[in-house]
Design a protein that fits this description.
The chain is of the alpha/beta class. The protein has eleven helices and nine strands. The radius of gyration is 19 Å and the shape is globular. It binds NADP nicotinamide-adenine-dinucleotide phosphate.
Amino acid sequence: MEKDNIVILVTGASSGIGQAIAEKLASNPKYIVYGTSRKASDSSNRKIHMLKMDVTDENSISNALEQLITKEKCIDVLINSAGFGISGAIESVPVDVAKKQFDVNFFGTVRVIQKVLPYMRAQKKGIIINIGSVAGYIPIPFQSMYSSAKYALESLSESLRMELAPFNIHVCLVEPGDTRTNFTKSRMKAGREEIEALYNPASKNAIQVMENDEENGYSPEKVAFAVFKLLKKKTPPMRTTVGLEYKAIYVLMKILPTRLKQSFLKKKYTGNCKKIRE
Ligand SMILES: NC(=O)c1ccc[n+]([C@@H]2O[C@H](COP(=O)([O-])OP(=O)(O)OC[C@H]3O[C@@H](n4cnc5c(N)ncnc54)[C@H](OP(=O)(O)O)[C@@H]3O)[C@@H](O)[C@H]2O)c1
């Protein structure tokens, strides 16, 4: 017999895309929505149950899940949205900071998935939605650590989908393009100043372009709507790119020769900064 309620956990639900997803899903009376944040705060939406979780801390993930399972006895859908971005030239970003980027955006997602899977396997069903990014298939200059972590998440999501198919657990990747959230304000400018200066004005230009694109991007509700629609599907697809132009860019990135792709991206992000200075 089909059960009536669907229990959903959204990581990174205190802001931006995760918050918009939690709010949209909570509008469906069948969905019981839990959201996470590193701060122990209540949501202004009384239908969302907030849990304290830091995705870099195994105990924190276990504690949050224990609270959810004690109350609901199951978890049907996991949506991994917690994340942040760093910028800087590859040469100038300290490896420790790059590791932090992967620790939150990539390994943070892995940790939560690992903790949730025993429950989903026991239930013999579940849906895992990872929030990727168009930056996972567009290698953006001066945001390479972020792009690389999202690229890794793409690969992980595709492998995981195959591994979990026999358990009736679906894995999906939702890829937003530029979206207006606190992501822009929270971006860590991680480059060491003296080295970063050698890459200017290209580096400054690229970061400015990213910030402008995000500030003029979609509202997070558009991503939330895509997730809402995804959950209605009997067999949710592997990949959902949000926004028509990003769907077109995805196809272009797959078919264009690297030379053309690089020429377009270089022009867009670094403008006319061609020459390496003496
Ligand atoms: N904005 C864009 O243009 C865009 C485009 C494509 C993809 N994305 C992706 O969308 C996701 C959400 O980003 P957003 O745009 O919504 O940014 P946001 O508004 O800054 O929200 C980030 C969320 O992640 C949480 N978070 C950050 N570090 C965390 C940690 N260590 N443990 C647990 N939670 C953590 C934050 O919660 P607390 O600070 O309360 O803990 C917050 O709820 C990210 O994965 C991002 O890469 C964003």
